[in-house]
Amino acid sequence: MAIFSSLWRTDLVALAGLVVVLGRLYMRYRGSGVRTTKLPGPSPCRNILFGAFAQMSTSPNQSLLFDDWVKEYGTAFSLPMGLGYKDVVIADVKAAIHFLARDTLSYHQTPFAKVLIEMLFGPGILWAEEDNHRRQRKALTPAFSNAALRGYIPVFYDSVYKLKTTWESILESGETTIEVQNWMNNIALDNLGIAGFGYNFHCLDGDKPAVVDVFDAFESPEKSGYLSSAIFFLTPVFPALARLPTKASNTFRSTKTSMKPIAEGLIERMKNEMSLVEDKQTEKSIIGLLIKAETASSGLMLSGDEILAQVRWMNTLFFAGYETTSTTLTWALIELARNPEKQERLRSELAEFSGTDPTWEQLTLGLPYLNAVTQETLRCHPPVPEIARVAMQDDVIPLSSPVTTAAGEVITELIIAKGTVVHCPIGQINQSDELWGADAKEFKPERWVDRELLPGAKGIQGYHHIMSFSDGPRLCIGRNFALGNFKATLSVLVRNFSFELPGGVDTPIGIYKGILPRPRVESEEGPRVPLKIRRLD
């Protein structure tokens, strides 16, 4: 009897799954009758159940995977995502410009992303669309103005000089190797806390907030059990699966809740301060502006839940500013250690600052080689290598170069039906041989100062012709905060220390898959990057 009951439950689950699949297919293709252009692409036979998502999630380098597909199928191709679903990939510059310009409008976060973002951060700016997104962005924009950013620079320098003192003590004790990625995490988090919210996490003093443990506990899918992996790989098709109590989903929820006490305490503290004194500097901070938005006089009218979500925007900052900044700094140190002559050229440019530091204006408008190192690090190592959105209405995407359809027809535009998921592989575009030349995969800051960019690269919109900060309505609102943090930190470290890889310039560097991909020295366990560091007199 138990056997029949088990079989009945299995059949019921299978039938329910079939109904869900058919229902989703009907919802996807109903309406105007428009059909997405059929394009060639990777075969679904490699993994019929999970499609290419499993390959993308476990690939050691997603940008190179997309590059292989572009070389085989062209700059627009079909991507099987399991259970018969097919997405579209656009690696064409003109198509990417069109697509990103319509982000939050014609294209929204995918249902899969919406579920994960809500679980991690709540209904903040990453989650919002259309008018809601514009309103939240408008509320946050003043906190990232040039005037506000100029005031954050002393915070960045205070943190990096604290790090300098700590490293000098470590080296004086006889150590010659320091694991730099953890220290880049610490400095990024302390800077976010102090400059963004007036809260010191004291990571550089040895403290470790609970939310960092949560992020560090996140495992890549291939390290999870079979059931957890299966659920993860099917969530793009069935986003509700992300809400099941798997290890990954529990990690996401812990990330959101671990910041709640800090967020609520900050709200109360700031309300009390603002009721006692009109502190204009406080009102220009992120949290001050958010609380100010609670009043009708601000004209922005964020709801109480939205304000709490935006102060839990600390969680958003972890995703958008903590790991991204720390990972980019780590990559910069790796690349400078791989290329001693480039490290020395940067040090020579910074040599004029003896007993002083570059100002905000110098970090922003001067120091061409520091700027080149920054741009090249972001080009070669974008923290988020790919963007996916779902079409909310039928669309026609123009192409800069013709592609061939699955039927053999040569076309110059794509028809995208409502409900189609479109991927933009920004990491591949950043390193495309067609756009950047034969040395596209190489770290060469000189391309930004010693020669003209190729016409294809010049056609890329976004920050200095790279797509690492996205573009359009979702152009990273905190990009200048991140750039100031990055440049101030790197300028001090390179002036005071030299960096070498533990096994020389050819030391193998791999990728550790977490919430975001992070570099790792391949001989190390986990996302560790030990470098040989020498103090400069």
Automatic annotation (TrEMBL):
Pathway it works in: Secondary metabolite biosynthesis; terpenoid biosynthesis
GO cellular component: membrane
Keyword Iron: yes
Main location: membrane
Keywords for the protein's UniProt record, in alphabetical order: Heme, Iron, Membrane, Metal-binding, Monooxygenase, Oxidoreductase, Transmembrane, Transmembrane helix
UniProt cofactor(s): heme
Residues given in the record as heme binding sites: C476
Claim: Transmembrane is one of the keywords in the record: yes
Gene3D superfamilies given in the database record: Cytochrome P450
Subcellular location per the Swiss-Prot or TrEMBL entry: Membrane
Molecular function as annotated in GO: heme binding; iron ion binding; monooxygenase activity; oxidoreductase activity, acting on paired donors, with incorporation or reduction of molecular oxygen
Lineage: superkingdom: Eukaryota
Matches recorded under InterPro entries: Cyt_P450, Cyt_P450_CS, Cyt_P450_E_grp-I, Cyt_P450_sf, Cytochrome_P450_monoxygenase
Similarity field: Belongs to the cytochrome P450 family.
Protein name in the entry: Cytochrome P450
Originating organism: Coprinopsis marcescibilis (Agaric fungus)
